[in-house]
Amino acid sequence: MLENYLKECLYFTANRLGRVITKMAEDEFAVSGLSPTYGFLLMAVYEKEGISQKELGGILHLQPSTVTRLVEKLVSKGLIYNRVEGRLSLIYATDKGKALEDVINQCWNNLRARYSAILGEQEGDELTLQLYKVSDQLENIE
Predict the structure, then answer these.
(1) Where is the HTH marR-type domain (predicted)?
(2) Structural domain containing residue 117
Protein backbone atom coordinates (compact mmCIF):
# COMPACT_ATOMS: atom_id res chain seq x y z
CA MET A 1 0.00 0.00 0.00
CA LEU A 2 2.84 2.43 0.81
CA GLU A 3 4.30 1.82 -2.63
CA ASN A 4 1.03 3.00 -4.22
CA TYR A 5 0.98 6.10 -2.01
CA LEU A 6 4.51 6.94 -3.05
CA LYS A 7 3.77 6.38 -6.75
CA GLU A 8 0.82 8.74 -6.48
CA CYS A 9 2.67 11.39 -4.46
CA LEU A 10 3.95 14.29 -6.57
CA TYR A 11 6.38 15.30 -3.82
CA PHE A 12 8.00 11.86 -3.63
CA THR A 13 8.05 11.33 -7.39
CA ALA A 14 9.44 14.79 -8.17
CA ASN A 15 12.22 14.32 -5.62
CA ARG A 16 13.04 10.91 -7.05
CA LEU A 17 13.23 12.39 -10.55
CA GLY A 18 15.32 15.25 -9.17
CA ARG A 19 17.86 12.82 -7.70
CA VAL A 20 18.10 10.79 -10.91
CA ILE A 21 18.47 13.78 -13.25
CA THR A 22 20.85 15.55 -10.86
CA LYS A 23 23.16 12.52 -10.96
CA MET A 24 23.07 12.54 -14.76
CA ALA A 25 23.74 16.29 -14.88
CA GLU A 26 26.61 16.07 -12.39
CA ASP A 27 28.17 13.27 -14.45
CA GLU A 28 27.92 15.28 -17.66
CA PHE A 29 29.14 18.58 -16.16
CA ALA A 30 32.07 16.94 -14.33
CA VAL A 31 34.39 17.59 -17.28
CA SER A 32 33.81 21.34 -16.83
CA GLY A 33 34.92 21.19 -13.20
CA LEU A 34 31.63 22.85 -12.24
CA SER A 35 28.29 21.72 -10.92
CA PRO A 36 25.36 21.98 -13.33
CA THR A 37 23.98 25.00 -11.44
CA TYR A 38 27.23 26.92 -11.89
CA GLY A 39 27.22 25.90 -15.54
CA PHE A 40 23.69 27.19 -16.07
CA LEU A 41 24.53 30.45 -14.32
CA LEU A 42 27.50 30.91 -16.65
CA MET A 43 25.30 30.14 -19.65
CA ALA A 44 23.02 33.00 -18.61
CA VAL A 45 26.02 35.33 -18.29
CA TYR A 46 27.28 34.28 -21.73
CA GLU A 47 23.89 35.10 -23.21
CA LYS A 48 23.70 38.50 -21.53
CA GLU A 49 26.95 40.06 -20.38
CA GLY A 50 26.18 42.54 -17.62
CA ILE A 51 23.17 40.60 -16.37
CA SER A 52 21.95 41.62 -12.94
CA GLN A 53 21.82 39.24 -10.02
CA LYS A 54 18.08 39.82 -9.88
CA GLU A 55 17.72 38.72 -13.51
CA LEU A 56 19.86 35.65 -12.83
CA GLY A 57 17.60 34.70 -9.94
CA GLY A 58 14.54 35.05 -12.16
CA ILE A 59 16.00 33.02 -15.00
CA LEU A 60 17.35 30.27 -12.75
CA HIS A 61 14.39 30.38 -10.32
CA LEU A 62 16.70 30.88 -7.35
CA GLN A 63 16.44 33.02 -4.23
CA PRO A 64 18.63 36.16 -4.10
CA SER A 65 20.77 34.72 -1.30
CA THR A 66 21.46 31.61 -3.38
CA VAL A 67 22.41 33.69 -6.42
CA THR A 68 24.75 35.76 -4.25
CA ARG A 69 26.45 32.62 -2.94
CA LEU A 70 26.83 31.16 -6.46
CA VAL A 71 28.20 34.44 -7.83
CA GLU A 72 30.69 34.74 -4.97
CA LYS A 73 31.96 31.22 -5.65
CA LEU A 74 32.40 31.85 -9.38
CA VAL A 75 34.13 35.17 -8.62
CA SER A 76 36.54 33.33 -6.31
CA LYS A 77 37.25 30.84 -9.11
CA GLY A 78 38.03 33.75 -11.43
CA LEU A 79 35.25 32.85 -13.89
CA ILE A 80 33.09 35.95 -13.48
CA TYR A 81 33.31 39.40 -11.98
CA ASN A 82 30.66 41.79 -10.83
CA ARG A 83 30.49 45.49 -11.21
CA VAL A 84 28.22 47.57 -9.02
CA GLU A 85 26.28 50.31 -10.77
CA GLY A 86 24.10 52.15 -8.32
CA ARG A 87 21.99 49.51 -6.63
CA LEU A 88 22.63 46.89 -9.30
CA SER A 89 25.31 44.24 -9.26
CA LEU A 90 26.05 43.38 -12.89
CA ILE A 91 27.78 40.12 -13.77
CA TYR A 92 30.33 39.58 -16.54
CA ALA A 93 32.42 36.58 -17.61
CA THR A 94 36.19 36.84 -17.31
CA ASP A 95 38.43 35.53 -20.08
CA LYS A 96 38.90 32.38 -18.00
CA GLY A 97 35.12 32.04 -17.72
CA LYS A 98 34.60 32.67 -21.43
CA ALA A 99 37.11 29.93 -22.20
CA LEU A 100 34.68 27.41 -20.65
CA GLU A 101 31.73 28.37 -22.86
CA ASP A 102 32.16 25.60 -25.44
CA VAL A 103 32.77 22.99 -22.74
CA ILE A 104 29.68 24.04 -20.78
CA ASN A 105 27.50 24.05 -23.91
CA GLN A 106 28.78 20.57 -24.74
CA CYS A 107 27.96 19.38 -21.20
CA TRP A 108 24.40 20.67 -21.62
CA ASN A 109 24.09 19.03 -25.04
CA ASN A 110 25.45 15.75 -23.65
CA LEU A 111 22.96 15.82 -20.78
CA ARG A 112 20.06 16.43 -23.14
CA ALA A 113 21.28 13.67 -25.47
CA ARG A 114 21.66 11.29 -22.53
CA TYR A 115 18.10 11.58 -21.26
CA SER A 116 16.71 11.81 -24.80
CA ALA A 117 18.35 8.47 -25.61
CA ILE A 118 16.40 6.93 -22.73
CA LEU A 119 13.08 8.78 -23.03
CA GLY A 120 13.08 9.61 -26.74
CA GLU A 121 13.77 13.13 -27.95
CA GLN A 122 10.13 14.15 -28.39
CA GLU A 123 9.06 12.56 -25.11
CA GLY A 124 11.95 14.22 -23.26
CA ASP A 125 11.05 17.61 -24.72
CA GLU A 126 7.35 17.19 -23.92
CA LEU A 127 8.06 16.05 -20.37
CA THR A 128 10.44 18.96 -19.82
CA LEU A 129 7.89 21.50 -21.06
CA GLN A 130 5.12 19.93 -18.98
CA LEU A 131 7.26 19.95 -15.83
CA TYR A 132 8.21 23.58 -16.46
CA LYS A 133 4.54 24.52 -16.88
CA VAL A 134 3.53 22.65 -13.72
CA SER A 135 6.41 24.24 -11.77
CA ASP A 136 5.23 27.69 -12.89
CA GLN A 137 1.67 26.91 -11.82
CA LEU A 138 2.69 25.66 -8.39
CA GLU A 139 5.26 28.40 -7.84
CA ASN A 140 2.81 31.17 -8.65
CA ILE A 141 0.10 30.11 -6.20
CA GLU A 142 2.16 30.94 -3.13
Answers:
(1) 7-136
(2) 2-139
